[in-house]
Amino acid sequence: MTTTRMRTPLKSILPGLRTSIFLGPMANAAGGTLAGKVSKAGGLGFIGAGYYTAEKMKDELNKALAILGVQQQDSSQQKHPRVHLGIGFLTWRLTVLNNGKKPSSKEAEDDNSPAIQLIDAALRINPIAIWLSFGDEEEMIGWSSVVRKRDALLNGDHGPENQVKLFIGIGNEKQARSGVEDCGADVLIIQGNEAGGHGLGSSPPLSAIVPLLANKLDSGTYKITNPSQSVPPLLGAGGIMTGANMAGVLAMGADGVVVGTRMLMTPEAAYSDAQKKMLIEAGPTSTLRTMAFDEARNTLGWPEGVDGRGLVNDTVNDYMSNKGGDGDARRAVYKEAEKSGDTSRIVTWAGTGVGLVHEIKDADEIVAEMTRDCRKSIEHLAEGLKQFQ
Fold first, then answer.
1. Which of 128, 145, 291, 384 could form a disulfide with 82 if both were Cys (CB 3.0 to 4.6 A apart)?
2. Signal peptide: which range, if any (predicted)?
3. For the chain, how many structural domains are there in total?
4. Contact predicate 185/166, CB 8 Å
């Protein structure tokens, strides 16, 4: 028998939050500067540490901490305040860094493992949140457990209410159940098919999956296993570029939104000027889900069923038409294009909402603008409904 339970308000989980906007942890794009700016503006910024080393992690964290005005804290001090900042990891990459060992094996938690060192580098600043995504079920469950254990080891026992918050990224209902029941998610993020960058190719659009998951969370369908025994809030990710988009996803039943592509169009994003220019000039039909870019860059270690949405260009066209021979030949062409600065082949991840915005703006301005416009959209909707009362 299911029991209705209230989802935990985001503000009670993340006391530093002033708006329900979250920066997606985009690898090679969302560094410390961008994440710090979003967090300082009242959202929650996530550093995309997917391909980082421990040293790179420290450098990017220092950038974010400087923006937030936070000094590095001694992890031996008990119960010091958590930093309003998040770090995102690709779980399959953690396994690669861990010499291919999944964290279910006892020997996998070696302090000298590059994966453990990377996680520890992130946890030593005592962040409020860690985001895990893109792994098979064993990896997601195992690395969730490792993060909790390493946090307790490095930062002490904060009690169930104040432990690091575990954000679990998922692409369908099956993954949602495992995220809540097996990984102990404090926050659940559903990434729809509209999202730019990597995602589960078979994911439904947000309009179909957000209401479904909201209902299951609210009806008590899932067994809650996070430390505070609280029903996880639900975030929607994919195609969200404006305050009106944000209002729509909240109306479907989400508690907050993850913004990716819009934040690439900022001075703080680690994208090149050429990539940002292409995003500004793109239209609503400029993106496609494909394995073309992963083939070209030889980044083929993603879990089964995952592909990537980006701007269509010559790399995509050659892949779709099987032009230029096999994958090795196309990889050689791509490498040459990188060397020569040929922007007609460059990888530029982008979601379906890319054609809605055509300007570069500071990240903090975007957070304020989207929050303001979201409120206006909700007020407009409420006014419109009054005529039917």
1. 128
2. none
3. 2
4. yes
